[in-house]
Design goal:
Strand content: 15-25%
CATH class: Alpha Beta
Shape: globular
Largest sheet: 7 strands, mixed
Radius of gyration: 16 Å
Number of strands: 7
Number of domains: 1
CATH architecture: 3-Layer(aba) Sandwich
Low-confidence stretches: 71-76
Strand order of the largest sheet: 1-3-4-2-5-6-7
Mean pLDDT: 89
Helix content: 25-40%
Order of helices and strands: HEEHEEHEHEHEH
Number of helices: 6
Structural class: alpha/beta
Length: 216
């Protein structure tokens, strides 16, 4: 059961399904703004703390095992990783995980600058999906990212991951906490999506939301 049930039309649900039934491919990793592809497709980005399950969710969303590299070592994504649909004008940007990184401080500062430049200067970026661990709810660094997105007027939507891990009571408490955290944020989408990469929960809703972005 989604915390914020949205009555997506059957057409949008089917459009979302077809959008991700076709292959996505890895294009490149970008370490500086000049590396980014031309602004010629609709872009969505995924952001989240290290170890939030970002790569697993991207793989599940696209139905391609191993598309985004998963690791038991937090902080392995150290670039803006670009994925594109082979049949639709859609680009996915996998952003470096924040909050932990096995890297020298200068390198972390460079990623932070790159992320800021990307978020504030990418005209084709339609939405950032901010992934929050469903076991814990928004942490300080999640709220910092939301502050940045609010300040930059970049639309974002919170996606709770790992929904299969906590008990129902614990999950309900996290949902309540998350709703409170975004309630008065100007750039936040009002609906929270609950997902489990393991069980496939929430993927239909996430695909439908992306299909709506493509249609608008």
């Amino acid at each position: 059961m989604q915390p914020d049930a949205v009555d997506y039309s059957p057409d949008i649900v089917e459009t979302g399904r077809l959008l991700f039934a076709r292959p996505f491919v890895f294009v490149k990793g970008c370490v500086k703004l000049a590396d980014l592809p031309p602004m010629d497709k609709v872009e969505i980005a995924f952001a989240g703390r290290s170890n939030v399950g970002k790569s697993s969710l991207i793989n599940a969303l696209c139905g391609v095992s191993g598309l985004a590299r998963t690791s038991n070592t937090p902080g392995r994504t150290q670039e803006l990783n670009i994925f594109e649909s082979t049949s639709a004008e859609l680009r996915i940007v996998d952003m470096p995980g924040y909050g932990y990184a096995r890297a020298p401080e200068p390198k972390v500062r460079a990623w932070t600058k790159l992320i800021h430049q990307y978020l504030t200067g990418r005209q084709t970026l339609r939405r950032v999906y901010v992934l929050v661990d469903g076991r814990h709810g928004p942490k300080d660094n999640d709220l910092t990212v939301m502050n940045e997105l609010d300040k930059s007027a970049v639309s974002y939507q919170v996606v709770l991951t790992k929904a299969d891990k906590p008990s129902r009571e614990e999950l309900d408490a996290v949902i309540t906490m998350t709703r409170a955290a975004i309630a008065k944020r100007p750039a936040a989408h009002p609906h929270v999506i609950l997902t489990s990469s393991v069980k496939g929960e929430g993927l239909r809703d996430l695909r439908a939301e992306i299909a709506l972005l493509m249609a608008s």
